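Researcher: Please predict.
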Amino acid sequence: MHTIVLGLGNPIRSDDGIGCRVVREVERRLSGWVGRNVEIESFYRGGIALMERLIGYEKAILVDSIEDLSGVPGTLRRLTLDDLPKSNHVDSPHDTSFKAALEMGRRLGAELPTEIVIFGVGIVPTSDFSEELSPEVAGSVEPTVRAVLEEIGL
């Protein structure tokens, strides 16, 4: 199965960079794994650009920050498209929603993944610029890496 793993977010916006941090670690752990059919990268856009990036893959695993739903930053959630909270980083106010972009792509015949898994890590949004994650969110890196590796089948 051809899989893509994308870490979403902004690595200089503190906890919003959790997706990028997780995929860097996943990539480090998979380096040298012969025969892998997995592509891994950080991706900084949503909506139509994100939909276009998924073309040609059977499965997509997205890692992103989400506004904390539980009141506890660092909480890891495995989500599907139907589970996405109303406010999420997969959408952009300057673009169509990710769900709408996927629907449009499918109507136009794009070969999009049949399975999309989203690992969302709860954060408290901030406007601070920093490359450091808060201690609560930093503590979620290892469990999220393990979840992604398990989702890949390792």
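Model: The longest helix spans residues 18-30.
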